[in-house]
Amino acid sequence: MTITVVDTYSAMKQILQAPLAERTGLLRSMLEPIKGMYRFAPVEVDLVDMHRMSFGFPVDRDERRCLDALEALAEAGAWKRMQRALDEALAVQQAAVAGLQAPDITVLFVLGDPGDAHFTDTVLGVSGSGGISGYILITLWPFPENLERLEVTAVHELNHNLRYAPGGVVWDPATVTVGEHVVGEGLADAFARQLYGDDLGRTRIGVAHLHDEEVFAKVVSGLEVTGMQNFTAWVHGDAGAERFGAEPVGLPTGAGYSAGNRLVDAYLAATGQSAAQALHADSAEVIATALRHGA
Fold this sequence. Notes:
- This protein has 295 residues and is α/β, with parallel strands linked by helices.
- It folds into two domains: 1-168, no CATH class; 172-295, no CATH class.
- It contains 15 helices and four strands.
- A four-stranded mixed β-sheet has the order 1-2-4-3.
- InterPro entries: DUF2268.
């Protein structure tokens, strides 16, 4: 199993400095390595459209801001740091789960859109997608807190990728529950915290409501909800639901992450497992065990 962090620095710099008419084509070429991420889509997707939907950098404005941000990432050694963190995290995970198998993984690290307030303010400049086996997409704006957490962001998504790899937990869009998504986020955070500590390891949007009993109870009330169109509201919160055309349910941003951390922490404490050992833990068992032990 090999993890490859694609050198997107050169490609992004070329795109941002190219004549406007050439940028979309260059962007599409840069995104080609993750085309397989969308293999389960009911219709063929346009990679550039998906880039825009996932907060990717614009090709028609903010060139100077984006070029400066790109250099900040380069100066921080972002690509090498992510590669090293992913390789080390994979070794930890393989040591914890005997016979762990997964496809090779392609990682695309992309600059985000500084003009998108939902991206910069609501989700704090970080968006990750790691649930489709073999592919990880990370979109980020180099706020100091995000630069500090580059490794954490990468290994969080790796945990998702390995959990849902063939032979692991099956994500069936027809039957998967909010509970699986919430537990998945909690496990990914717990794995990052195992490697990098609690101060860095938690996803930032989940920290504010970690000890909010009302938010926790609300998320728990929705754990049996099915239908992936509902997941944004229950996991990411009302602002995310509104952004993507889903029905809000009365939750703040990151509610599912905070609840997932609590559920997984209680489960790990009760079972004595590490986060790495619990990679394939059944979400229903995690939830039941955690609630019995006062999550």
